[in-house]
Amino acid sequence: MFLNMNKIDIALISETRFTSKSFLSVKGYTTYNTNHPSGNAHGGTAVLIKCNIKHHSLEPFATDKIQATLIKVSGKSSDITIAAVYCPPKHQILREDYRHFFSQLGHRYIIGGDWNAKHLFWGSRLVTTRGRQLYQAVKELNLECLSTGEPTYWPTDPRKTPDLLDFFITKNIIINNTSVESDLDLTSDHSAVILNVNDKIILNEAPPRLYNKKTNWEEYRDIITEETQLTVSLKTVEEVEQAIEDINKLIHSAANRSTPQGKAGRAKEHVYPTFIRDSVTERRRLRREWQNNHYARDKTAFNKASQQLKALTKNGQ
């Protein structure tokens, strides 16, 4: 639902906590994931990309300090590496670690995820040691940081202060062609960050088909009936092969003539009923109230709205 309502082409997911036994499938998307190198259910990342976008997967990056899932999207001017990243908070990550990771991504890339690093440069409220190391690597490599400037991490402990941990780092992406926005639809303690990029990519061509929903099967049968030659000689191998070739040509010709030609229309976008969209709006309002006040009653109201929305979408499928 989140992917459809926000028209997400590529989703970057941090801290999937997958193992070799985990499996994620979303209709209309191809999924790639990178698990923690220990194989245990913590850390890890995943990328979901629409099936009609031309791309290929790259070798995943998996260390105790940094996990990243990498794909390369085919662009009309040049390809773009897209990476979902997660940096567990317990490790010390130095400037050299970040530089080594960035060196694996090519000359043009977008990396997004939970860096667990704070710095005023990308909008956090303070600077941590890890944030200072990442900032140095970013400046030395002339990279760009894209964020909303708003908190993305909302701790459940009221004694902790929300802060910005999730953002994008890019190289050779025209900043004027991008915009970043927050989204509060998900139930995680991290809010989603949406990066809009105005760039030309290559879509996969739809495989050719003999027929479609508009094929006139009555016309097809009439063509086959009228034009099939039944009085042909089948005495030699050459005559049999020629007869097979002729019938194949007739089948293709009949299908082509009985099927309206033209550009394939774009797939219809799923439109949710008004009551579901209203429920989403109310849930967003309640989540913002809870994030601002941290009152127990606001948390209860938010959880109740989340359960109601879940039930509505389940019944609507």
CATH class (first level) name of the largest domain: Alpha Beta
The CATH topology name of the largest domain reads: Deoxyribonuclease I, Chain A
Number of domains: 3
CATH homologous superfamily of the largest domain?
Endonuclease/exonuclease/phosphatase
Percent helix, as a range, is 25-40%
Assign the structural class, choosing from mainly alpha, mainly beta, alpha/beta, alpha+beta, or little secondary structure. alpha+beta
Distance between the termini: 11 Å
In CATH terms, what is the architecture of the largest domain?
4-Layer Sandwich
What is the string of helix and strand elements?
Answer: HEEEEEEEHEHEEEEHHHH
Radius of gyration: 26 Å
Number of helices: 7
Average pLDDT rating:
87
What is the percentage of strand-forming residues?
Answer: 15-25%
Uncertain segments:
none
Outline the biggest β-sheet.
7 strands, mixed
**Global morphology:** elongated
GO molecular function, one term: RNA-directed DNA polymerase activity
Pfam families: Exo_endo_phos_2 (PF14529)
Protein name: RNA-directed DNA polymerase from mobile element jockey
Organism: Eumeta variegata (Bagworm moth)
